[in-house]
Amino acid sequence: MKKLLIFLLLPIVVHAAVPSSDLIASLKPFQPISTTIEDGNLIIVLNQKMITSDIYTSVISTAVCASLWLRNKESLAGVTSVTVLNEFSFKGYVFEGGKDLCMEFGEIPQDKNNIFLLGHTHLK
Q1: pTM, whole model, 2 decimals?
Q2: Which residues contact 118 (CB under 8 A, 6 or more apart)?
Q3: Burial of 26 (0-12, 13-18, 19+ CB in 10 A)
Q4: CA distance 96 to 121
Q5: 3-state class (DSSP) for residue 66
Q6: 122/67 Cα distance (integer angstroms)
Q7: CA-to-CA distance for 68 and 75, rounded, in angstroms?
Q8: Spatial contact of 105 and 59, defined as CB atoms under 8 Å apart
Q9: What is the per-residue pLDDT for 54?
Q10: Which own/partner contact pairs does 114-123 have at CB distance under 8 Å and 24+ positions apart?
C-alpha cells in the first residue's frame, strides 16, 4: 500500500518547480508566504487577507515582469501564467501570460499598462 501511495504522489512532486533566485529577490518586498511553479503556473501567495487590483498590478509590474526586464531574461522560463493569491490561497488574480506577455508588457507605453495588464487577467 505504501508503494502505491508513493507511486501516485510522484507525478505531483515532479510537476512542481522552484522559481529562479532573481524572481524570489524581486518578490521579497511583497513578503510572499510561498512562491511555487506548478505545471507552468507561477503561484505567489501573499500575506494579505485580500488581493486588490493595486497589489496585483504592483506584483506583476514591479516584481514578476521586472525580474525578467532588469535581472535575468530566463527568470520566467517555463512559466505560462502567474497567480497572485491571498494568505488563504483562495482569492486573487491570474495573469494569463508568461515570458512573452511580460516582454510585450514592458514595451507598451506607461499610460496603457493598466489596460494591457487587466486585459490579460482573470479573477481566481
Answers
A1: 0.83
A2: 53
A3: buried
A4: 6
A5: helix
A6: 22
A7: 6
A8: no
A9: 95
A10: 114/57, 117/57, 117/60, 117/61, 118/53, 120/95, 120/96, 121/56, 121/93, 121/94, 121/95, 121/96, 122/93, 122/94, 122/96, 123/91, 123/92, 123/93, 123/94
Residue type present at position 74:
E
* H helical segments located in 1-124: 2-14, 21-27, 53-59, 65-66, 99-107, 113-119
CA atoms of 82 and 56, how far apart (whole Å): 10
Distance CA 117, CA 105 (A): 7
Q: What is the DSSP string of 72-104?
A: -TTTTTT--EEEEE-TTSSSEEEE---HHHHHH
pLDDT at 59: 96
> What integer pLDDT is reported at residue 2 of this predicted model?
53
pLDDT digits (tens, 9 = 90+) for 15-42: 567 888 888 999 999 999 999 999 999 9
